[in-house]
Structures are given as C-alpha cells and as structure tokens.
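Fold this sequence, please.
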Amino acid sequence: MANEIHISLDSLFCDGKPKTVCVALSGGRDSVALLHCLLNDGCAKQNKLRIVAANVEHGIRGESSVRDSAFVAELCKRMGVELYSFSVDAPSFAKQNGYTLEQAARILRYRFFDELLGSGKCDYIALAHHLDDQIETVFMRILRGTGIHGLSGIKAVNGRYIRPLLGYTRDDISEYVLRHNLKYVDDETNDDINYTRNFLRAEIATLKQRFPAMGVAIKRLCDSAEECDLFIESQVPNIELKDGAAYVKVADCESRVIAKRLYMRAAAALGVIQDIEERHLNLVLDLLHADSGKRLDLTHGICVYKEGELLAFTRRTDGVEINSNSITGDTAQSGANSQMKEQSFSEGHFESFGIRVASVDLEHAKERIGGGEALYVDADKIPASAVIRGRREGDYIRKFGGGTKSLGDFLTDKKVPLRTRDSLSVVADGSRILAVFGVDISADVKIDDGTKRVFALSVE
C-alpha cells in the first residue's frame, strides 16, 4: 500500500506552454481524490497548470444523481475550481439506439468531454481510473473474446485523455482520502451486480483473497500485450480516406492479423470503435475473394464494397440499419434517392435530389459536351411522362452504338462504384432510363442535327 499518491505530469509540460486539465468529476471517491491530487501537485503548481472540472448527470438515478451533481458544484465552488456541467438522458438514448445503459452513459459522457476538448476549454481530460479498474477492464475484455489490443488494457495516456491514478489501487486511494479527510458521495448502483462491471468487481474481490498479487500480474500482462500491440501497429499500412469512405488495399490483407487491424482502422475512421467482432472480420476476409462490385453489410451501418483491388468501407446515410452479414451483388431500391417520391421532369432546381435542369443555348452545349460539368440532352426527345427518381429494379438504358443494357450493367461498364449507386438520380420514362445524372445519357435523347432545344442536367 502506498504511503502517498504522487502524480507525474512531466509529459504535459514538454513544450513549455500553459495547460488546462479538466477532471471528470462524478463526486465519487476516486475522482475527488484525483482533483485534490492535481490541485496539490508540486509539478502542476510550478508549471502553473490550470485545473477545471466537468460533471455529467446521466439521468439514471433520479434525485440521487441530481444531488451528486449538486455536491460536485458545491465542492468546486469551495475549492475555487471552474466547473462545466452537462445533463443527459442516458436511458432514452440507450433505448433508441439499442445500447446497454452502461454503453449509452459512456458514449454521451465522452461526447461531452470531446466537446470540451474541441472547443479549447481544456487541453486534457483527466480520468480517475486506477489499477483495480484496469483489472476489471481486462477481465471484461477477456470474457468478450478480446485480442492482443484489448489485453493491453486502459492506457495511462491516450491522446488527450490522461489517467494519473492508473498505477494505484483502490485501497491506495481510500487511504489517501482518509488521510486528507476528503468528503465524497457514493453511487448506490455500484453495489448492483445486475451491471456487468459491478458483478465482475465482486467476483474479482473474491479472487484477490486467493491471489493477492493479481493486480501486479494483470499489469505485467497489460505491459506485455502492449509491446506486442505496438509492434503489430508498426507493421500496418495506412488506409486512405476519400469522399467519406475508408479504402483498404486487398494486397495489404494477406496476413489475417494485419487485415484485422486494417478493418478496425477503417471502422474507427467511420466513427465505430466498439463491437468489432471476430465474425465480422471473417466476413470481410470472404469479401477479399469476391467479385468486384459485391457488397457486405455489417453492424452499425457499415457497408464494405469490393472495388477492384480495393475495399471501400462506408457508413449508410439513409437512416436504415442493416445487419444481414451477407455478401450481396448490385441491388436497387435501397438508397436514399430510390426511396424518394418521383417528381415530374421539368426545368428547375430539384433540391431533394440535389440536381438541376436548365435550358442552355445549343451552341453552348455543343462546345461543352464531354466536359464533365453537365450532361446535355435534346429537350424535345424527353416525353411528357418522364420523371426524376432513383434507380429501380428492371431499369434499362439504350447505349450509344445500339442495343440496350440493364442499368446495373451499364453502371458497371461506367465504373460507377456500387456504394454510390443508391444515391444516383435518373430521368426515366417507365423503366426506360433517359439519363443518369453525373454519369451519362441514353442514345434516345442525344443531341443531333435536328436538335432545337437543349437541357443541361447537373449535379449540385
């Protein structure tokens, strides 16, 4: 048991600039001890480190939770610490998004912290995790089937999140609180074993009676795993981010270990950092050997497309959550535009489709055909029955040079990525496609010697 808690913050002052550290302050024993430590740290005082605090009321424990936030506010006032407070409705958020209450609370809490960092109100967020939290986290990850990365545990420094107490036990912190006569509040849900972490905490307490050095052993495991993890990360190629997609080279996925890391990086780039399971990796590996144009739907709305020698990871944007976990080919009627009501074709701005139809001079059109800024069609060749809509099953188009093709095959010939096809707008007369905005037109509406009026079709 430590005689005193000493916090090392030397790395925060390496550039010599003044820093602001925000303590995530729940009012519980650990966070109160952390706030007290930081306020009284000699290195922090010498370098004029500014300490502030943040409190999130999760809306889980009713009046008890509100009282805890009031305690935090009074504590900060007494200590002269600026406080940022935030209230959320974690139960409703969990229900709406299919999260557990613990997951929902964590997501909302970190959103608030990220906002504080992003707005410049602080340079770091200090969290009160300690060695016993590390043990619980590693056990939880093992039970969920973690890999080397998960076994490395919680990081003392993870970007702009720091955990100064990670090397100390819960008993060390309790002794510190007692010695300095610090007041704090107890969260009554900490004893509720219906929560996974609380259940594990109780079981680990029993294990520690038989294995008192378990904390040291777990720390050694985390350190070894982190060494392996850092080496693997150093071998992983970069992914490319472009147009809202994360691109992974098929050639970089020969090693299963590297392929898994690339998948995790791509998912993280799209904002998904949890629930990356082994079965999802196996599906992605199957896609490596599929034909170009195939699609894989994963959890959290992630779609993966095989595009030649690349895998393109994207997020669905139409509000539909797909979790079919199967490899599929080109399908219509699943995207945002295909779900929109069709509109009669005419000159004008179609804001809901993000397109414009404008009359232009014939000579102007002839000079710019093929320039890429717009598609030009013979206005008089478009029937009154034509509409603007998304693509549908059974659509076909007449090619230049004769013959017809299904719209799907036509888009494949034009090398239009499968992942972008559901957002395309078309001019259609029944199933006959006259133009695909941003791609090409049908031979049925091309400009010729008899053309008198021209429409320019452009994507905004």
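Residues 318-325 have pLDDT under 50 and may be disordered. The first strand starts at residue 20 and ends at 24.
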